[in-house]
Amino acid sequence: MAGLWLYLRRRQDGVDGDAVAVPYGAGGKAIFVIFAVVSLVEAGLFWLIDFGLFADLLLLALGIYSVLLIFGIYAGTVVRPHVISSRELRVRYSSFYDVRIPRENVAALRHAKESHDPLKAKAFRDETWLSHDNYYETNLVAELREPVTVTRPLGKTESVRVVKFHADDPKAAVAAFERLGSDRV
Q1: Beta-carbon neighbour count of residue 29 at 10 Å?
Q2: In this structure, what are the phi and psi dihedrals at residue 162, rounded to the nearest 5 degrees?
Q3: Best exposed site among 5, 48, 83, 169 by fewest CB in 10 Å?
Q4: 40 and 117 share one domain
Q5: Number of structural domains in the chain
Q6: Dihedral angle sign, alpha carbons of residues 87, 96, 119, 33
């Protein structure tokens, strides 16, 4: 719900100073709209069956909550973009994870479009982490000098040396990374 609040106020979280926002949620907007419409239809269909006033009100409240939750997750993808700055690289997905990688630990950030089969891909394999925020497609690869600890949404941690993630404009992200790196020298 915090993402929805920031979205309504047209603010972004964690983008300050020399930081550059790297959006990633454009490809997922349609699926969120579909989920919200389905939830609204579902909530409306429950009114056709007479469960009693208390159950009808409860189901209506749950339907409204589910629509707000769906829009909140989408809003989180907009207000919490990946961030590239002279201090760090942040790989995020809504409020589910926020991986901070110190700038000096990033050996390279490059554009490499890859598609990963969801049935075969594991989130952590050979010290590589795939950010599954865009239908198992990644287009940026951050190679690290030292492993970083990544916390999964349910709390389990892993140590990784390569982070693969998605950005709407990967070439602009690489250019921003290189520009901010050259400003430090």
Answers
A1: 12
A2: -130, 135
A3: 48
A4: no
A5: 2
A6: negative
HSE-CB for 24 with a 13 A CA cutoff: 30
> What's the whole-model pTM score?
0.80
Residue-wise pLDDT for 114-134, tens only, equals: 877 666 655 556 666 666 666
104 and 180: one domain? yes
Beta strands, E only, 6-105: 20-22, 82-84, 88-93, 97-102
Q: CA-to-CA distance for 73 and 105, rounded, in angstroms?
A: 30
Q: Tell which of 79, 100, 117 closes a domain.
A: 79
Please give the radius of gyration of the chain, using alpha carbons only, rounded to the nearest integer: 19
Q: Give tens-digit pLDDT for 10-40.
A: 888 888 888 999 998 887 788 888 998 998 8
